[in-house]
Amino acid sequence: MHDLDWPRLISDISEALVLTQRELGKSIGTTQQSVSNWLNGRRVPSDTKAKRFFKLAEEAGISYEDYRLPQKVLKEKQKKLEIKSLPIKVRRLSVKLNNLHPRRRKKIMEYLEDMLETVEKKHTS
């Protein structure tokens, strides 16, 4: 369900059926706040709620297949999720490294790679 442009789909359903966020939420069994979160891209509907949206889309004459996200966007979302799963210290260090001049960053990365090699050699011997 993460492969759809939910904000655009929900907005189009709402416009086609002339429903407010509150009415839309009530029609699928949720709150106005949940609908707002989906419209703002903070969250995506659960599978159960998504199926209800698909029924509403059908009523509105909208094909949800037209709202599939391109692979490039999906890869970017996946990358963001992977980054979010890293420890905060690693993310902060990554930001600092990315803000450095490319030559400086390259030197630091080479230094770190050398250090890792040294550590690996010590642990294997």
Q: Major beta sheet, specifics? A: none
CATH topology of the largest domain: 434 Repressor (Amino-terminal Domain)
Q: Please give the domain count.
A: 2
- The CATH architecture of the largest domain can be given as Orthogonal Bundle
* Overall strand count: 0
What is the distance, rounded to the nearest whole angstrom, between the alpha carbons of the first and last residues?
49 Å
Which residues sit in consecutive blocks of at least 5 with pLDDT less than 50? Answer: none
- Give the number of helices: 7
Q: Find the structural class using helix and strand composition.
A: mainly alpha
Q: Give average pLDDT, whole number.
A: 91
Helix content: over 70%
Please tell me what the overall shape is: elongated
- The CATH superfamily label of the largest domain reads lambda repressor-like DNA-binding domains
Strand content: under 5%
Q: What's the gyration radius in Å?
A: 22 Å
CATH C-level of the largest domain: Mainly Alpha
Give, in order, the helices and strands.
Answer: HHHHHHH
